[in-house]
Design brief:
The complex is a heterotrimer of chains A (380), B (328) and C (705). Chain A is mainly alpha-helical. Helices cover 60% and strands 0% of the residues of chain A. Classes of the chains: A mainly alpha (380), B mainly alpha (328), C alpha/beta (705). Chains in contact: A-B, A-C, B-C.
């Protein structure tokens, strides 16, 4: 589907005389600077980034400035509302809510970060391999993906939780990462499928470059912006999953606390002693929101076809325009745009898979199935 | 086309089988039904416990393979084994299934329909005030886990009831116990109880999938064929609705399965929080009481439901898109 | 179906049906206003064909969309557009909707994306009728069938219920035309209607457009980047550049006496099917200006050979040009100099010297064989199912291809999409044992799995340049890494590589300092030069070029083609040059091989094959390529092939071409069976002594260019 493209936009790179082009290039800041500039032009992303930084400061510096440890019991103050002594009040056994919230947030953030990191690495590797090699590698990965979609990670971790208690929170991180990469991998796979079609991959093969070198040197850098965006949003998603599990007692185990355990413990007090509930709940929502906003902003900043965050209505351009519009990453139409296999397990009809990345964004799942190829034989 | 769907169905059945078997082994390895008797007073002798566990089929001293084959033999004939309380799993499964499906179907169907409506509306009026407000709301809702939504709704309803002085919104259980009255009274009671749990499940769905619908719709609005439709003299709105909406719904059908998956997990929270005796709540309790057979039965149910949703997606997709029909 | 018809000029009466005056279109962007159209005047008379020609970004498509009122709402449009004297600009959606599809209809470029995928073609054509004429659905459907028949869709009663994806590209474009003429419009706007199509299909579509225009008596605006297509079709031509009409005249006068240096350059930059190719093409230096920040004065000044200081002061107005017929207007201060000094592109522009190779003197037979392919076959499995793939058939993509390339020679490989050109290249480049047939590369036969060192040697000695200069360069690598990659792949030391990269950059005409930049910072032509530099890196003997210029604008293409010619002469390279464009092949190639449905059908020296084609398919191809010379184009014989090539999923017997062959159609029954049963072999049929073979049982020479 080609978009409306006024033909002046068809070849904007050609639309500049070489001399002036070189001057223009000379003043073009490098990609990183450009990305940051575009990122900060996006109000949501800026807010998201600032909020995330503040929450990290709160989680890691908070315990240092708080006069109480998270498990210290102040028998002189049971269920006291926020005050000078206990900034966020205390719970009914006299624990400081500020210290507990900070500690809980710390744990949640650590889990979120690590899970996002590991699951993105797994997703990147497996997705790229499935897409690049195709054949049985692809089918094996995809059947595995389907299976894990049928067996939701929540269910598996819940079943495993009785054993979890012995191993602590790091095993929780491992499990969340192990069961959280499938959807991302699906998208990476479909992005890889389309990158693989691009001629620079063929060019590399015809130079005699090995398959793994091609994956590392040509495929992964081209899905990097998607992975960065996805990982950002995955942090928030992992925090939500962790807190959901902890809410039922399947996640972080006492005496350790996370936002989920705090919310579970104190939900019944929400109306009578709101400070017990709302600080933790607020921290959770605000963090997830911030990570979504940042991820969305990153998408716009890394995606050369997006003009979001700039003033006025955005004009969408695609196809040749997208590629030559002087943006950074021609493949960067990341979020969920891909022709991923259908979410119905195993289906291979071109359609988007929802990703953690997409819901809150302007991601554009393509509506067209693979175009009938005129040169059927040429690419069969 | 029918052959394609039949093949899919076979694949799905295979997936269900693998998923359930895996869960059986996993649950057998991690859950400890023996501990249920450890806390009993007086503590039964270990022979008694062994015999009891063996009869239920969850004795960790029996070979796992044997237990599995026995369970499988039962499952094929529709017998899902005994609960730790030595009652047939299937006996309790039935009523709970009704409760869960009511919540699930109403929540997901309403959620998806509203998501499509909201998403389409926002796409057509991109950057209008309504679109901006929806975007912000969607972001907040996506960032709020189901259990928080449910708890917050409960708090809100309590406050409202307090302010008004009588029970406007009922939210405990799936029906008022021992309610007597005609069909109308009972139906109304059920609907009233359905309100908050449905909202807590559906609202997240609306938030997520309205964004997808909006994105797909925006994509479609830029499509050449909308321009063609207008070039032949259709006005903007008819062109969008006649030529755009159906095309935009095609990718949405494939999301349907995913939506259901999310709803299923969300429902465990909702059922627990609103004290519904559904399968989700049953599962959570079973994990906590080390009841292997219930856990496996729940997995079977969840796998079947997800794959049915996947199958419905396949069918809808083929119905809407002639190209899919042609490919298969 | 042979169709030779002079354009009926008497139809063009003088009352204008569509008048565009001082049209401007501006798109606000974050970087400033893009002035896409800057004061365009057009007059379209009843029954006339107006060709609008221009390169990408000239504003030609925007102009036609503005007439329909279908620009995005952000666009600012001023000026006046009158249909039969009624102002269209400023009308609301309702009023415009009554005009669109009834009085002004449009044919879009990409007919696949222009049809709604979920409705049948019939429904979509019927809808056009229903909107404006009402009536029952059955009546509208009947009309759709009638229209499909009119544009030459076989079995319209059955085809009316097909979905767009079930049509071939050419059929979709016909259906698009059927939709446009459904309500007998006064004006048909056709925006690059043949651009994505193969030449033989292009010829079909143009003939359908002619018929459609004749049937409806509508005035036709034909927008194209292809001067050749326009030349034979249009009555009058408007040349657009940087958002303005820079020259307008009748087709004959424009080609005979161009009065704007840009037009002169465009004509000279075009490789010609009908001219031998010992001269370089005219490259117009530089690239079109950005519409974001136009310097004052003539927008072409930066690229113009006749430029003087006064050109940079004010933009010249479009005025009556000197020494030509009335109505021929040009926007150039120096139009009179073109009268005095002549309008030969070679004289107006600086022409690089024709490169000569040392090998030119060596007779072909005594040169080394660089590539020899004989009877190559490649099939692909046709699979079904997603999880468990089953093979349900085969695609015979390549089914008997012969190629022969000698040292220092360019072999042009010609064929339409689906003919197996690309598959052939990939089979050669994969360095694998072919399914059937033989490949011999630089003396090494690919008859068994090659050892590592041989593979490395061949990888260095054979390289490839791809069609899309953006897709063939990794966007995440700086140019220096891109060019270095083949060198590192064959194990050259780092310091040698870093010495070689700037050398290669200069060799292809790029600044060595630009090596740190990324591909997107370069223009299309520059990117293709980077691609060529990469292909040259490891000192190859043979470069395989897959449609290397088809993504480029004409004026850019000329520069790249000249560069390739220079490099070949300088470095004694051999090229295997694949193109669908026969004019380009005529210009670059020494020899040519024509493919149809996976088989070689004709091969020989390029001038011999083009001037004395033997195979009916080659003849049809040649006749379908328009020549940018209106008089000549009108006088040529045009063979329009019926239908589409058969699908390669069916194993063909006998001659593959007979289903579309005009010769076969005229053969007596007795002789036909030979075409049906016997696969024709490549035999010399040509004039005595000529190294010219064709695979046709009844080869007969026919002169067409």
């Amino acid at each position: 589907m080609t978009r409306f493209t006024p033909d002046l936009l068809e070849g904007p790179s050609d639309a500049v005389a070489p001399e002036s082009r070189e001057e223009a290039v000379a003043t073009t800041p490098n990609r990183l600077v450009l990305t940051f500039r575009r990122l900060f032009a996006n109000r949501g992303a800026t807010v998201g980034l600032v909020v995330i930084v503040l929450l990290f400061v709160f989680a890691f510096v908070g315990p240092l400035v708080s006069p109480y440890a998270y498990n210290y019991i102040d028998y002189t103050a049971l269920s006291s509302p926020p005050s000078g002594a206990h900034w966020f009040g205390t719970n009914n056994i006299g624990q400081d809510v500020f210290a507990q919230t900070a500690r809980g947030l710390q744990k949640s953030l650590l889990i979120g970060l690590l899970v996002a990191l590991f699951s993105t690495v797994i997703a990147g590797m497996l997705g790229a391999m499935a897409g690049y090699f195709g054949g049985w590698v692809d089918r094996a990965v995809m059947v595995f993906v389907d299976l894990l979609l049928v067996l939701p990670s929540f269910l598996i971790i819940a079943i495993l939780s009785p054993r979890l208690k012995q191993y602590g929170w790091l095993i929780l991180v491992a499990l969340l990462a192990l069961f959280g990469w499938m959807i991302t991998a699906r998208v990476v796979r479909s992005l890889t499928l389309s990158i693989k079609e691009r001629e620079f991959i063929r060019a590399a093969r015809y130079m005699g470059i090995g398959h793994f070198t091609i994956i590392v040197r040509h495929i992964l850098p081209n899905v990097a912006s998607f992975l960065v965006i996805d990982a950002t949003i995955a942090i928030g998603a992992a925090v939500l999953t962790e807190s959901g599990l902890s809410y039922f007692g399947f996640g972080v185990q006492p005496p350790d606390v996370s936002l989920g355990t705090l919310i579970a413990q104190n939900q019944s007090a929400a109306t009578t002693k709101p400070w017990l509930f709302f600080f933790a709940a607020g921290a959770l929502i605000v963090f997830a929101l911030a990570s979504n906003l940042l991820g969305d902003g990153l998408r716009d900043a890394l995606d050369p076809t997006s003009t979001a965050g700039r003033t006025g209505r955005r004009r969408r351009t695609r196809g040749r325009t997208a590629e030559s519009s002087g943006g950074a990453a021609p493949l960067g139409r990341t979020g969920g745009v891909s022709e991923a296999a259908s979410p119905a397990p195993g289906a291979d009809v071109g359609s988007p898979a929802p990703t953690r990345t997409s819901p809150a964004s302007d991601a554009r799942p393509t509506s067209a199935p693979p175009r009938t190829n005129d040169e059927k034989g040429e690419r069969a | 086309m029918a052959r394609f769907l039949a093949r899919r169905l076979v694949y799905y059945v295979a997936l269900v089988f693998i998923a359930t078997s895996l869960t059986y082994f996993l649950a057998s390895a991690t859950l400890n039904p023996r501990s249920v008797y450890a806390d009993r007073n007086p503590r039964p002798s270990s022979e008694v416990v062994d015999a009891k566990l063996s009869s239920i089929g969850v004795n960790d001293k029996d070979p796992l393979g044997e237990r599995y084959v026995h369970w499988l033999g039962g499952a094929v004939t529709g017998d899902l084994g005994q609960t730790i309380q030595d009652k047939p799993v299937t006996q309790e499964f039935g009523p709970r299934l009704g409760v869960s499906l009511r919540l699930l179907l109403v929540g997901s169907v309403l959620g998806i329909v509203l998501a499509v409506v909201v998403g389409t509306w926002n796409a057509i009026r991109q950057y209008a005030f309504s679109d901006r407000v929806s975007s912000v709301l969607a972001f907040v809702l996506i960032s709020t886990p189901v259990f928080l939504t449910a708890v917050l709704l409960k708090i809100g309803a309590t406050k409202l009831n307090d302010v008004l002085g009588y029970q406007v919104i009922t939210f405990t259980g799936e029906a008022t116990p021992n309610l007597t009255g005609g069909f109308g009274t009972i139906a109304w009671d059920r609907i009233a109880h359905l309100l908050l749990p449905t909202i807590s499940i559906g609202i997240g769905l609306i938030a997520v999938y309205s964004r997808y619908q909006r994105a797909t719709m925006l994509d479609v609005l830029q499509a050449d064929y909308i321009r063609t439709a207008r070039a032949k003299g259709l006005r903007r709105r008819p062109a969008i609705f006649k030529h755009g909406l159906r095309t935009a719904l095609i990718p949405m059908t494939t999301l349907f399965a995913f939506a259901f998956l999310g709803v299923l997990t969300g429902a465990t929270f909702t059922e627990k929080i609103f004290a519904w005796n559904g399968l989700g709540a049953w599962f959570i309790d079973a994990v906590q009481t080390n009841d292997i057979n219930i856990v496996v039965a729940y997995t079977l149910y969840s796998a079947i439901v997800v794959l049915l949703a996947g199958f419905v997606s396949d069918v809808l997709n083929a119905v809407l898109d002639p190209r899919v029909r042609a490919q298969k | 179906m042979t169709l030779t018809e002079p354009v009926d000029r008497t139809r063009a009466s003088s009352d204008p049906v569509l008048e565009v005056r001082d049209l401007t279109v501006t798109f606000p962007t974050p970087d400033g206003d893009v002035r896409a159209v800057r004061g365009v005047d057009l007059t379209l008379r009843r029954g006339e064909v107006l060709g609008i020609v221009g390169e990408s970004g000239s504003g030609k498509s925007v102009t036609s969309l503005a007439v329909l009122g279908l620009l995005p709402s952000t666009a600012k449009v001023t000026g006046s557009i009158r249909l039969d004297g009624d102002e269209l600009l400023g009308r609301g959606d309702k009023a415009m909707s009554a005009i669109r599809g009834r009085r002004i209809a449009m044919v879009f470029q990409d007919p696949l994306s222009a049809f709604t995928p979920v409705y049948t073609v019939g429904q979509q054509i019927a809808e056009t009728v229903l909107i404006h004429r009402g009536g029952s659905k059955a009546q509208a459907r009947d009309r759709a069938i009638e229209l499909l028949g009119l544009v030459g869709i076989p079995e319209p009663e059955r085809r009316v219920d097909s979905f767009p994806h079930e049509f071939s590209g050419g059929m979709r474009q016909r259906a698009m035309i059927a939709m446009a003429i459904a309500n007998d419009p006064d004006v048909i706007l056709a925006d690059e209607p043949t651009t994505a199509l193969d030449v033989t299909i292009q010829a079909q579509v143009i003939s359908v457009l002619r018929t459609a225009q004749r049937e409806t008596g509508a005035a036709l605006v034909f927008v194209s980047h292809d001067l050749g297509v326009i030349a034979g079709f249009a009555d009058r031509i408007a040349v657009m550049y940087a958002g303005r009409v820079v020259e307008t005249a009748t087709a004959d006068d424009l080609f005979a006496h161009p009065r704007m240096p840009y037009t002169v350059g465009l004509i000279g930059a075009l490789p010609r099917l009908d001219q031998r190719s010992d001269q370089p093409l005219v490259p117009i230096p530089g690239t079109p200006p950005s519409l974001l920040s136009l310097a004052p004065g003539c927008p072409f000044a930066a690229r113009c050979p006749l430029v003087t200081a006064e050109c940079r002061v004010d933009e010249p107005a479009l005025v009556q040009a000197p020494a030509v017929e009335a109505g021929h207007r040009a926007a150039c201060l120096h139009a009179d100099r073109l009268v005095g000094e002549g309008t030969d592109p070679e004289d107006v522009y600086d022409l690089p010297p024709a490169p000569t190779s040392a090998l030119a003197a060596v007779p072909r037979a005594s040169r080394d064989r660089v590539l020899h392919v004989d009877g190559l076959v490649k099939t692909f499995p046709l699979t079904k199912g997603s999880v468990f793939k089953r093979r349900v058939g085969s695609v015979w993509a390549v089914d008997g291809v012969d190629l022969d390339v000698r040292e220092g020679e360019t072999l042009g490989l010609v064929g339409e999409s689906g003919s197996g050109k690309s598959t052939t290249l990939h089979e050669i480049m994969d360095l694998r044992v072919p399914e059937a047939g033989t490949i011999e590369l630089l003396g090494t036969a690919l008859d068994r799995k090659l050892d590592g060192s041989t593979v490395k040697r061949l990888r260095g000695a054979v390289s490839m340049v791809f069609q899309d200069p953006m897709a063939s360069l990794d966007p995440r690598q700086p140019v220096s890494d891109i060019i270095a990659e083949p060198l590192l792949a064959i194990g050259r030391p780092r310091d040698e590589v870093s010495r070689r990269v700037p050398e290669l950059m200069r060799l292809v005409g790029l600044e060595a300092a630009a090596a740190t930049r990324y591909p997107h910072e370069f223009s299309g032509g520059q990117r293709q030069r980077i691609s060529i530099a990469r292909a040259l890196a490891a000192d190859p003997k043979l470069i395989v070029l897959d449609e290397p210029v088809s993504a480029l604008d004409v004026s850019i293409q000329a520069g790249v083609l000249n560069l390739l010619a220079e490099l070949k002469a300088e470095l004694d390279l051999s090229y295997l040059f694949v193109s669908h464009d026969l004019s380009v092949i005529r210009h670059v190639a020494d020899r040519v091989t024509v493919m149809y449905l996976g088989r070689t059908v004709e091969t020989g020296p390029v001038d011999e094959v083009f001037e004395h084609p033997l195979h009916p398919y080659t003849q049809a191809l040649l006749s379908a390529v328009p020549v940018p010379d209106p008089a000549k184009e009108r006088a040529r014989e045009h063979i329009v092939l019926p239908g589409d090539p058969p699908t390669p999923t069916v194993k063909q017997t006998g001659c593959r071409f007979r289903s579309r062959c005009p010769l076969y159609a005229m053969l007596p029954e007795a002789q036909r069976s030979r075409c049906e049963d016997e696969v024709p072999t490549m035999l010399p049929h040509g004039r005595d002594g000529a190294d010219h073979t064709a695979a046709c049982h009844f080869a007969r020479e026919k002169q067409l260019v």
